[in-house]
Amino acid sequence: MSLNLLTENETNPVVWRGPLIAGTAKQFWTDVIWGDVDYMFIDMPPGTGDVPLTVFQSIPVDGPTIVASPQELIGMIVEKVINMAQMMHTPVFALVENMSCITCPDCGKEIRVFGEGHIDEIAEKHGVQTVARLPIDPKLAAACDAGRIELFDVGWLDGLMKKLASENK
Fold first, then answer.
1. I need a labelling partner for 44 at 20 to 30 A (CA). Which of 74, 88, 95, 139 fits?
2. pTM of the prediction?
3. What is the mean pLDDT of residues 131-156?
């Protein structure tokens, strides 16, 4: 479910203030017929604003998986989200580093476009597990653009899936 599905034109911006957006997130949980799902991922804007607060307060969240990019400034935001989860008495499930690197198509060398990540240090500091590092991959972007993501088979999220499986035994 996406707010984008409710706009007249997919390129129309959603120019709403926090309470209206937060109410919509809550309504997605209560009014959409989800059926029998094993896992639900709620993609939220970064940070600790109205939407994450509403989700923590009104949806039975087992724990967030925080996705972050390698930049040092992002590390501060990740720690804020971890601290928010602790304040809401919700354990952080895992950390994922997105845009970790790109592989040079000519020589195969991994290039850290955004520098060395700090996610492992943050994970250790807060007793959270880093479960995946996702590279920048033009083939993945092309598969997403073509609506063919399900055909893109790589093991980048295997660590997350293993953790999900072990938590639900």
1. 139
2. 0.83
3. 86
Domain containing 157 equals 62-169
Strand partners, 95: 66, 130
Ordered strands of the 130-133 beta sheet: 65-68, 94-97, 130-133
Tell me the per-residue pLDDT of 66-79, one tens digit each, with 9 for 90 and over: 999 999 889 899 99
Band the pLDDT of 169: cuts 50, 70, 90: low
> In which residue are the tokens 């720690």 written?
79
Last residue of a domain, one of 61, 85, 107: 61
Q: Which amino acid is at 100?
A: S
Q: Which long-range contacts (CB under 8 A, 24 or more apart) does 155-160 make?
A: 156/132, 157/96, 157/131, 157/132, 158/132, 159/94, 159/131, 159/132, 160/65, 160/94, 160/96, 160/131, 160/132
User: Exposure of 159 by Cβ count < 10 A (0-12 exposed, 13-18 middle, 19+ buried)?
Assistant: middle
